[in-house]
Amino acid sequence: MRGVPPEQTGPERDAPLFTDFTYDNLGVPKNPKNPFYGMPAQWNPEGAAYVDNGLGGYLKDAGYKPSRYEAEIGKFKVPSLRNVDKRPFPGFVKAFGHNGYFKSLKEIVHFYNTRDVHGRCEKLGDPRPGENCWPEPEVPSNINREELGNLGLTGKEEEAIVAFMGTLSDGYSMGK
Ligand code: HEM
């Protein structure tokens, strides 16, 4: 930050958010450990069968026509990656993705890289998600198949992306 005028260094001034503000369905698996499934019927009448349809679900419930909401089913907003790796202390486990399926940045980057390379866990007797399979997507409609799923990255390249994301934390400095 040396050389940057102080008025341009605060998060409130043109600070990059590292999102393109669009919506996408990455094909994220269901997270059965999400506490929402166990909530009282008053809040979650569908129990374990609940499916989060993201933007499309919201538009449907808001009364929009199928011609408007169908193309948005399963899409979630591309979140800001600013501070994505920021934690209260180094060993603190964060969950990533709208339903918290991924428990590390390495896991989600590996998913981007190999979603369409591994087979489905549901078909295997010895499923090891991320290693020999990925679970089926929670919502199969409108999955982005052009920009992710088989990136051809090596393990080292995945780690470099994870390390890069670590630099997006406010106050980051080399050697921390
Ligand atoms: C290598 C490049 C990319 C990296 C490192 C990356 C990283 C991430 C991370 C870490 C998250 C989780 C953030 C959180 O939970 O707070 C995320 C979510 C997301 N990203 Fe990416 N991303 C990449 C490329 C893309 C592309 C190309 C798209 C769109 C085509 C995209 C769309 C999304 C969406 C929609 C979510 C939210 C998914 C959900 O919650 O269901 N990302 N990304």
How would you sum up this structure, described in words?
The model is unreliable at 1-6 (pLDDT under 50). This protein is mainly alpha-helical and 176 residues long. It is globular and about 50 Å long. The strands form two sheets. Strands 1-2 form a two-stranded antiparallel sheet. It has four helices and four strands; from the N terminus they run βααβαββα. α3 packs across α4 (155-166). The protein has a single domain (16-165), classed as Cytochrome Bc1 Complex, Chain D, domain 2 (Orthogonal Bundle), CATH 1.10.760.10.
What's a concise summary of this model?
With 176 residues, the protein is mainly alpha-helical. It has helices at 54-61, 66-69, 105-114, 155-166; strands at residues 23-24, 76-77, 119-120, 133-134. The strands form 2 sheets. Strands 1-2 form a two-stranded antiparallel sheet.
